[in-house]
Write a structure and sequence with these properties.
The protein has 222 residues and is of the alpha+beta class. It is built from 5 helices and 11 strands; from the N terminus they run αααβββαββαββββββ. β7 and β8 form a beta hairpin. α1 packs antiparallel against α4.
Length: 222
C-alpha cells in the first residue's frame, strides 16, 4: 500500500466514512457505530462531556453483539494471565502464540473512538494487527476482547527509528517546553498518537512492532 493510499484511508476513517468491502468484525463494528453515531473532532478536548454518548453506545453494542454472535461468555483462565495495562488485562494463548486483551476502552471518550483507533492501528501496523473477537461483561462492566500476535523483543528499541517511521506516515513528535514527548501528531489529518515509548514498541530482526497504540481522531491546536 503506498503512502497516498494509506493517508486517503486514514482520512476516511477520521471523517466517519463507512469502509466498504471489509468483512472483519472490527471494521464491521466500527461501521455500524458510524452509521448511528457521529465521529467527533473535539473528542479529546470534550472527553467528559461524551460520557452519556459512551453509555448509549454500550447499550447499542450489547444489542448488536447479541444479534451477531459477538457476546463472549467466559474470560481466559487466570493461568493464562500475563499483565495488566492501563486499559487492558492481557492473557497468553499458547496454541496460537497470541495475546488476548480484555479492554475497557477507558482511554477513549466513546466506543466509536476506540474502534476507530483499532482500525487505524491495523492499517498502519499490519504486523501486529488486532482481531476483534467480541464483547464480554464482567461484574456489569463492558469490555472489548481483542487478539494480537505475541511478539518478543530481540533487541533494545531505538526511539529515533520509531520517530523516522512515524514521520514517514506524517506524524511529528510533539514538544513540551522544547523537549520531545512520547506523543505524535499528524497535522494534515488531525490525528493524535499517544504514549509511544519503549514498552509499546518492540524491535525484533530489525523490524519494529507497535503493540499498544492510542489514536485520537481529533484536531488540536499546536
Amino acid at each position: 500500500m503506498n503512502i497516498n493510499d494509506t493517508r486517503s484511508k486514514l482520512k476516511n476513517i477520521i471523517d466517519g466514512v463507512i469502509i466498504e468491502g471489509a468483512t472483519d468484525n472490527c471494521t464491521a463494528t466500527r461501521n455500524i457505530l458510524c452509521s448511528s453515531f457521529s465521529t467527533s473532532t473535539t473528542v479529546k478536548r470534550d472527553f467528559e462531556s461524551k460520557s452519556i454518548s459512551k453509555k448509549e453506545q454500550v447499550e447499542f453494542l450489547r444489542k448488536y453483539a447479541s444479534e451477531n454472535a459477538l457476546l463472549i461468555g467466559q474470560a481466559p483462565s487466570e493461568s493464562q494471565f500475563l499483565a495488566r495495562g492501563g486499559e487492558a488485562k492481557v492473557y497468553f494463548e499458547e496454541e496460537t502464540k497470541s495475546v488476548i486483551k480484555i479492554n475497557d476502552g477507558i482511554y477513549y471518550a466513546t466506543w466509536l473512538e476506540f474502534f476507530n483507533s483499532i482500525v487505524i492501528h491495523n492499517l498502519l501496523f499490519p504486523n501486529t494487527a488486532y482481531t476483534f473477537l467480541g464483547f464480554i461483561e464482567i461484574e456489569d462492566d463492558f469490555f472489548a476482547v481483542l487478539k494480537q500476535p505475541f511478539v518478543t523483543a530481540g533487541d533494545v528499541v531505538d526511539l529515533s527509528d520509531v520517530k523516522k517511521l512515524l514521520a514517514y506516515n506524517g506524524f511529528e513528535n510533539t514538544l513540551r517546553k522544547g523537549l520531545p514527548t512520547n506523543n505524535y501528531y499528524n497535522k494534515e489529518l488531525g490525528l493524535i498518537l499517544e504514549d509511544i515509548h519503549d514498552e509499546n514498541v518492540i524491535v525484533n530482526s530489525n523490524t519494529l512492532f507497535f503493540i499498544d497504540t492510542v489514536f485520537y481522531t481529533a484536531f488540536q491546536e499546536q
